[in-house]
Recover the amino acids of this structure.
């Protein structure tokens, strides 16, 4: 886990813009935004991807989504949003710590892939 950049961001060892934090997760601004609003939900416990998290800690996943659902207005997502999580090579996952992209703040492309 020591060289995981998202673990370091969660620990505050690498700077980031955190827009929300609780005991389960942090929400940060993506370094390379692909929409007007592009945030990342980072569950604090290290799991490599959505499959590992869902299989081992479904309650944590549920708590993250529940907390996010209560934050959408203050995050500027009143008009809607898109959640994406990439897994593995076909999904083009580049950071092996589960993270859920939040995209919004504008009308997104209809085509997702
Ligand atoms: P993936 O390709 O794994 O689904 O997404 C990784 C995301 O993490 C990318 O959108 C990338 O811009 C973002 N990212 C990578 N390194 C950093 C970083 O050090 N800080 C922040 N805030 N975002 C990062
Ligand atoms: Zn990690």
């Amino acid at each position: 886990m020591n060289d995981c950049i998202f673990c370091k961001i969660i620990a505050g060892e690498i700077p980031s813009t955190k827009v929300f934090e609780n005991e389960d997760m942090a929400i940060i601004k993506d370094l390379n935004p692909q929409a007007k609003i592009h945030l990342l939900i980072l569950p604090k416990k290290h799991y490599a991807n959505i499959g590992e998290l869902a299989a081992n800690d479904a309650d944590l996943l549920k708590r993250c989504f529940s907390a996010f659902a209560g934050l959408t207005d203050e995050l500027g997502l009143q008009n809607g949003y898109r959640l994406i999580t990439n897994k593995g090579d076909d999904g083009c996952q580049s950071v092996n710590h589960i993270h859920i992209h939040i995209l919004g703040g504008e009308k997104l492309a209809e085509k997702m892939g």
